[in-house]
Automatic annotation (TrEMBL), chain A:
EC number: 7.1.1.9
Organism expressing this protein natively: uncultured Thiotrichaceae bacterium
GO molecular function: cytochrome-c oxidase activity; heme binding; metal ion binding; oxidoreductase activity
Class of enzymatic activity (EC top level): translocase
Name of the protein: Cytochrome c oxidase subunit 1
Entry's localization field: Cell membrane; Membrane
Function: Cytochrome c oxidase is the component of the respiratory chain that catalyzes the reduction of oxygen to water. Subunits 1-3 form the functional core of the enzyme complex. CO I is the catalytic subunit of the enzyme. Electrons originating in cytochrome c are transferred via the copper A center of subunit 2 and heme A of subunit 1 to the bimetallic center formed by heme A3 and copper B.
Biological processes, Gene Ontology terms: electron transport coupled proton transport; oxidative phosphorylation; respiratory electron transport chain
Lineage, broadest ranks: Bacteria, Pseudomonadati, Pseudomonadota, Gammaproteobacteria, Thiotrichales
UniProtKB/TrEMBL annotation, chain B:
Organism lineage string: Bacteria, Pseudomonadati, Pseudomonadota, Gammaproteobacteria, Thiotrichales
EC number, as in UniProt: 7.1.1.9
Record-given protein name: Cytochrome c oxidase subunit 2
GO molecular function, one term: cytochrome-c oxidase activity
Reaction equation(s) it catalyzes: 4 Fe(II)-[cytochrome c] + O2 + 8 H(+)(in) = 4 Fe(III)-[cytochrome c] + 2 H2O + 4 H(+)(out)
Domain Cytochrome oxidase subunit II copper A binding residues, every copy: 116-258
UniProt-annotated location(s): Cell membrane; Membrane
Length: 528, 376
């Protein structure tokens, strides 16, 4: 069947091949080209957001202000979050979806290829608009990525740019999601029933619904900010009869599902990789699907746990505490299933597997602190401290970002036809893992000891752990240069990869050549 | 085998500091109220639950990593499903969670019951200071970062931070409360959202414009307890600390009497005519505490965000609009109405200072009576 596919492409080459030169990338409607664009874009943004993080950690290396003034520090914390969430992590997952979903379900391409092009090409413009705020009067947004009014209304010329950038990013995400849902619903190969879909496809299917449900909510919230600032409305202004807390409710109704938008595809990736290297089928496939769906559902009814200190009624605090604690159940099921998949397998530890195991352990550590944060009375002490910073960085960095790296190592041989340098890959894993823990683990301690988040300077008793954390940050940042080097090197050259690539791998993507033909599956495979 | 040793060693290295230094520097404070102790207990219970689950889950993983590997010729098993275990590991966590949720809910109900308080203090957040108003004793004052910390924290300051008392946690006017009394705090804000947090009291509540939130504390031990603003509130969010001094009942009463005497003295001197040099000296103090955060210690401001004082049309033009903007603020900007925050004398002093210091030399001055006349 492979041979057939290749032959077919050759035959139609004169009007189905890629355009030549840079126009190929501008006009492409090919899911693999667009996937690559997303991934490169995300890698660049990962470094830009990382530089901002290093400015933050450099200032926090010692107490006192040494490098930047507090206003610029706040711009860095705000922009670091916006860049990492909207420009690095989300595009990385969309890039993986573009590359992998069609070839995992046996389709030739995405269902809506032209819209696919558009949803990518909005991103560079939105990100230029967002990043250029650093150079306007008053500087970049400094009110936090959560954009709470009234503070965010004090933003200078950057304010409308921030709002429109968020609108554009939302449009891009919604189009991407529609495309993913349309592809999964309509383009599965014969025999590929829903309950036979690979978990990466399943988790993205559910994620896409979360995006469609929540992105318009965010767009609405920021539009109300815009009219409050320029058109004399008072949605969030108490003086005009509005309610500043209402913004927080609306924002977190988007924001909490957003958290799962950033982690569900990661669950999918890890659920693909662990069975491959354990040489054993994923344990509890259907319970994994149900757990993902449960987490997605629960994500809509826990938003106010971000707001335990705003003065909610006791009944609301109790409801949101119980609902939040419930999330631990399906999340626990996932972790238990991964461990059971490894149990009595025949494991090898190539780089993707190392990153996946790192993911399971460190994501679980982030999950533990999440469970602690769910307890409302205790949250009164944790809220807005470095304990929270440590918590969400554990789930996002050695969680979500590690999963993206695992995916890159796992599928790169398929994408490029070249093996990456295994030795360097493992070195990259160990450097990342050691430094990410030096970076974030001490933040639990300073948070518990009373250090608030988003401060540029701190009392001297927090000095030691902050210095350690900053050392970890620079180590982690530098280790990622290695990642870029390994990726670029593997794209350009490297040992030829087989079609199967990993001996324990299962799924349609491994039946295609490495790299796959231009129109992935021109003939639909039959899934038994 | 070597690799698994590294992994195991790493995990151990991660967990040891937690066990080795179980003092306040790595852990939550137990605090000085019954509820802060209860919260600490809940925190530790949740922590140990996580540790035990972690040992079981990671233990199984590590065992599997060591023994179920291809280079040990371990043949993969074929099982991939078991409804029984799925049910067990769904139900067991639910039971554990319920056992945590019950005491948490009980504590929460106690925390949120601020009825029958012995006294009430209203706390108002400002960019970037706190105002405390004692409802029963008619005392009201502002509390800002201590001058020593402000100076030492300036960008490029050479001051050794270890020589500064309680760097960033010291204020000019601490809030004083009696020991053993149920003190109810009411929280609101004059501008953006702040959060009042004192870890030892286990009180953290947002101060939100248009809202009045409440929280209470009954401190068991006399002492000084420090905290900080915990909600991002702009440039100087990191520089609006909270200092609470809990005093024995009689000392507290003495403090109240002292405050009221000072207030009476201030009222008596309201119509006094000030010398230029006194106005300038007082004006600098008022400026550094209230204005320098935005307009800069030298009056340079921050271009595009906060206007400069030096050479500004307001500070060098007619004195009327100058006094007016300080009294009433400027709507739509971060400029607050200081008429409600500062006395006539302080406003007169700061107006005079801004016109004749900070690189300006207009030559005129304002007297407290001028301010009084202009108050709306």
């Amino acid at each position: 069947m492979n041979a057939q596919a290749v032959e077919h492409v050759d035959h139609d080459d004169h009007h189905h091949g890629p355009a030549k030169g840079w126009m190929r990338w501008l006009t492409t409607t090919n899911h693999k080209d667009i996937g690559s664009l997303y991934l490169w874009f995300s890698l660049i943004m990962f470094f830009i957001g990382g530089i901002m993080a290093l400015v933050i950690r450099a200032e926090l290396f010692q107490p006192g202000l040494q490098l930047v003034d507090p206003g610029f520090f706040n711009q860095m914390t705000t922009m670091h979050a916006l860049v990492m969430i909207f420009l690095a992590l989300m595009p990385a997952f969309v890039g993986l979806a573009n590359w992998m979903i069609p070839i995992m379900i046996g389709a030739p391409d995405m269902a809506l290829p032209r819209m696919n092009n558009w949803s990518f090409w909005i991103l560079p413009f939105a990100s230029i608009m967002l990043l250029s705020t650093l150079f306007v009067d008053g500087g970049a947004p400094a009110g936090g990525w959560t954009m709470y009014p009234p503070l965010v209304l004090q933003t200078g010329a950057a304010f409308p740019m921030l709002i429109f950038a968020v609108h554009l990013l939302g449009i891009s995400s919604i189009m991407g999601s529609i495309n993913i849902i349309a592809t999964i619903m309509n383009m599965r190969a014969p025999g590929m029933t829903y309950m036979k879909m690979p978990l990466f496809v399943w988790t993205w299917f559910i994620t896409a619904y979360l995006l469609i449900a929540t992105m318009p909510v965010l767009a609405g919230a920021v539009t109300m900010l815009l009219t409050d600032k320029y058109f004399a409305t008072s949605f969030f202004s108490a003086a005009g009869g509005g309610d500043p807390v209402m913004f927080q409710h609306i924002f977190w109704f988007f924001g909490h599902p957003e958290v799962y938008i950033l982690i569900l595809p990661a669950f999918g990736i890890v659920s693909q990789i662990i069975p491959t290297f354990a040489r054993k089928q994923l344990f509890g496939y259907s319970s994994m699907v149900y757990a993902t769906a449960s987490i997605a559902f629960l994500s809509f009814i826990v938003w106010a746990h971000h707001m335990f200190t705003v003065g909610l009624p006791v009944s609301a605090e109790l409801f949101f505490m119980f609902a939040t604690m419930l999330i631990a159940v399906p999340t626990g099921v996932k972790v238990f299933n991964w461990v059971s998949t490894m149990w009595k397998g025949s494991m090898t530890f190539e780089t993707p597997m190392l990153f996946s195991i790192g993911f399971v352990i460190m994501f679980t550590i982030g999950g533990f602190s999440g469970l602690m944060l769910a307890l409302t009375p205790v949250d009164f002490q944790y809220h807005d401290t470095y304990f929270v910073v440590a918590h969400f960085h554990y789930v996002l960095v050695p969680g979500a970002i590690f999963s993206v790296m695992a995916a890159a190592y796992y599928w790169l041989p398929k994408w490029t036809g070249h093996m990456y340098d295994e030795k360097l890959g493992k070195f990259h894993f160990w450097m990342s893992t050691i430094f990410v823990n030096i970076l974030f683990f001490p933040q639990h301690f300073v948070g518990l000891a009373g250090m608030p988040r988003r401060i540029p300077d701190y009392a001297v008793q927090f000095a030691d752990f902050n210095a350690i954390s900053s050392i970890g940050a620079f180590g982690f940042g530098l280790s990622q240069l290695l990642f870029a080097y390994i990726m670029i090197k593997a794209v350009r050259s490297g040992k030829k990869a087989t079609d199967q690539v990993w001996d324990g791998a299962e799924g349609l993507e491994w039946t295609l050549s490495s790299p796959p033909p231009y129109h992935s599956f021109s003939t639909q495979p039959i899934v038994k | 085998m070597k690799r698994s040793c590294i992994a195991g060693g790493l995990l151990a290295a991660l967990l040891t500091p937690l066990i080795a230094h179980a003092d306040w520097e790595v852990n939550m404070t137990q605090g000085v109220t019954d509820l802060s102790n209860e919260i600490y207990g809940l925190h530790m219970a949740a922590f140990w639950v996580c540790v035990v689950i972690g040992i079981v889950v990671f233990g199984a993983m590590i065992y599997s990593i060591i023994y179920h590997r291809k280079d040990k010729n371990h043949k993969p098993a074929t099982f991939h499903e078991s409804t029984t275990v799925e049910i067990i590991w769904t139900v067991l966590p639910v039971i554990i969670l319920i056992s945590l949720a019950i005491p948490a809910a009980q504590a929460l109900v106690k925390i949120e019951d601020s009825s029958n308080a012995d006294m009430t203090i209203k706390v108002t957040g400002y960019q970037w200071k706190w105002q405390y108003e004692y409802a029963e004793d008619d005392i009201s004052f502002f509390s800002s970062l201590a001058a020593s910390s402000r100076e030492a924290s300036a960008l490029g300051s050479e001051i050794d931070l270890d020589t500064v008392d309680n760097y960033l946690l010291e204020v000019d006017n601490p809030v004083v409360i009696p020991v053993g009394k149920k003190v109810r705090f009411l929280f609101t804000s004059n501008d953006v959202i702040h959060a009042w947090w004192v870890p030892d009291l286990a009180v953290k509540k947002d101060a939100i414009p248009g809202y009045i939130n409440d929280m209470w504390a009954k401190v068991n031990v006399a002492g000084t307890y420090r905290g900080q603003c915990a909600e991002l509130c702009g440039k100087d969010h990191g520089f609006m600390p909270i200092t609470v001094i809990a005093k024995e009942e009689d000392e507290y009463k003495a403090w109240v009497a002292e405050q009221q005497a000072a207030k009476a003295a201030l009222a008596a001197s309201a119509d006094k005519v000030w010398e230029m040099s006194d106005l300038m000296a007082q004006g600098k103090k008022v400026y550094d505490t209230n204005c320098a955060a935005c307009h800069g210690a030298t009056g340079a401001g921050i271009p595009g965000v906060f206007p400069a004082m030096t050479g500004s049309p307001i500070t060098t033009g007619d004195i009327g609009p100058h006094i007016d903007i300080i009294l009433n603020g400027k709507s739509g900007t971060a400029m607050q109405a200081f008429g409600t925050q500062l006395s006539d004398a302080d406003i007169a002093a700061v107006v005079t200072y801004e016109r004749n210091g900070l690189g300006n030399s207009v030559g005129d001055m304002a007297q407290p009576t001028d301010i009084k006349a202009l108050r709306k």
